[in-house]
Specification:
With about 300 residues, this protein is of the alpha/beta class. Strands 1, 2, 3, 4, 5, 12 and 13 form a 7-stranded mixed sheet that branches. A 6-stranded parallel sheet has the order 8-7-6-9-10-11, with helices on both faces. Helix 2 packs across helix 7. It is globular, with a radius of gyration of 19 Å. The model has no long low-confidence stretch (mean pLDDT about 95). It binds NADP nicotinamide-adenine-dinucleotide phosphate. NADP nicotinamide-adenine-dinucleotide phosphate (NAP) binds next to helix 1, helix 2, helix 3 and helix 8.
C-alpha cells in the first residue's frame, strides 16, 4: 500500500463527491488487499467506510446536498481525501455526532445489528458464542446481544482483550483452545443457540460442534483464512449454516437508514459504546493493516484523513 496523487473524482449521475474526514478500517479491506474478495486489484484505492462532507453532487442528485455531512459503509476508495459515494448509500450524520465517530461505527455497528436481529434473531435466554469478542464487530455485537437478553460466551487471545470484552458485558470469555468443549460445558451439554464466527478456517468446524441441535452457525468472515470446503461428515447434528453479507440484508434505503438510526440512537443514549483503538494518518494506512492483522487491536481502527 502506498500513498499516491490521483485526479480528483467527478460524480456521475446518482453519485456525490465527499471530502473525507475519517475512514474506517475493516477486515474486509484486508480481504480486498489479499484478494480473497475482489476489489483490491493493484491500483485500486482501498477502504469502503467513511465520513465527511459532500462537496459536489452528480446530475440528478438532490439528496444529500453540498455541505451536508454523511457517512457510508459501501464506497470503494474511502482511504482518500475525496471519495465517490452513491447518493443512495449516503447516510446523514446526526448533528451531535463527530465524523470520526460516524466512520468508526457505521459499518461494524450496522453489521452487528443485522447479525443479531435478522440473520439470527437473538432471544432472551439464548446463549450466544461470539468469536474475536474484543474486536470491532465483536464488542458491538456483545453489547447488542446483552441488550436483547442473551448470554455471551466470547473467545479472544489475551487476558487484556478478555477484560475489555467483560467490561462491555460478555458473560464468559474463553480461550480458542478447546472452545467447543468449553461451550458445551457452560451450556450443560446443549450448545449455543448461535455461533457468530468471523474467524473462518481456524474455527469453523469447532464452532459447528459448539452449536446446539437446530442452532445457527453464522460464518460472517474469515480473519484466519477462508473456509474452502465443507465436509458434510463433520456435521454431527442438524445445524443451519449461513454466510451473510450486509448488502443482502439491506434491500432498501429505508432499511439502510433505519439500521443506522438504531446504531446512532444506541450511541447517543449511552447503551452502545464504540471503542476507537487507534487513529492513523492516511500515510500510515499500511500500519493500520499490519496492526489489525497482527491481532494486537481491540475495537475500531480509524484513518483520520484530516490529520
Ligand atoms: N459479513 C459481513 O456483513 C461483515 C461485515 C463486517 C465485518 N465482517 C467480518 O467481521 C469480522 C471482524 O471484523 P473486524 O473488522 O471487526 O475485525 P476485528 O474483529 O477487530 O479483528 C479481527 C480479530 O480476529 C481475531 N483473529 C483470530 N484469528 C486471526 C488471524 N489468524 N488473523 C487475524 N485476526 C485473527 C483477532 O482477535 P483475537 O486476538 O481476539 O482472536 C483479531 O483482533 C471479520 O471476519 C470481518 O470480515 C463481516
Amino acid at each position: 500500500m502506498t500513498v499516491a496523487d490521483l485526479p480528483e473524482p467527478r460524480p456521475a449521475a446518482g453519485q456525490v463527491v465527499v471530502r473525507v474526514s475519517a475512514a474506517g478500517v475493516n477486515f474486509r479491506d484486508v480481504y480486498h488487499r489479499e484478494g480473497t474478495v475482489p476489489g483490491g486489484e493493484v491500483g485500486a484505492v482501498l477502504g469502503v467506510e467513511g465520513a465527511g462532507t459532500v462537496v459536489e453532487a452528480g446530475p440528478g442528485v438532490e439528496d444529500p446536498r453540498v455541505g451536508e455531512r454523511v457517512c457510508w459503509w459501501r464506497a470503494a476508495g474511502s482511504y482518500a481525501e475525496q471519495a465517490l459515494v452513491d447518493a443512495a448509500m449516503a447516510i446523514p450524520i446526526p448533528d451531535d455526532m463527530s465524523d470520526e465517530l460516524a466512520a468508526a461505527s457505521i459499518l461494524q455497528g450496522t453489521t452487528a445489528r443485522y447479525l443479531c436481529t435478522d440473520t439470527y434473531s437473538v432471544r432472551r435466554g439464548d446463549t450466544v458464542l461470539i468469536h474475536a469478542v474484543a474486536g470491532g464487530v465483536g464488542l458491538l455485537l456483545t453489547q447488542m446481544v446483552k441488550a436483547r437478553g442473551g448470554r455471551v460466551i466470547g473467545t479472544t487471545s489475551t487476558p487484556e482483550k478478555a477484560a475489555i470484552a467483560r467490561s462491555l458485558g460478555a458473560d464468559e470469555v474463553i480461550d480458542y483452545r478447546g472452545f467447543a468443549d468449553r461451550v458445551l460445558e457452560l451450556t450443560e451439554g446443549v450448545g449455543a443457540a448461535v455461533a457468530y464466527d468471523g474467524i473462518g478456517q481456524a474455527t469453523f468446524y469447532d464452532s459447528l460442534a459448539a452449536v446446539r441441535t437446530r442452532g445457527t452457525m453464522v460464518l460472517y468472515g474469515w480473519a484466519s483464512g477462508p473456509v474452502t470446503s465443507l465436509d458434510i461428515r463433520r456435521f454431527t447434528r442438524s445445524v443451519f449454516v449461513t454466510r451473510p453479507g450486509m448488502i443482502d440484508y439491506t434491500p432498501t434505503r429505508a432499511i439502510l437508514l433505519e439500521r443506522a438510526d438504531a446504531v446512532f440512537h444506541g450511541i447517543a443514549e449511552g447503551s452502545l459504546s464504540v471503542r476507537v483503538f487507534a487513529r492513523y494518518p492516511l500515510e500510515e494506512a499500511a500500519r493500520a493493516h499490519r496492526d489489525l492483522q497482527s491481532r494486537a487491536t481491540t475495537g475500531k481502527l480509524v484513518i483520520d484523513v484530516g490529520l
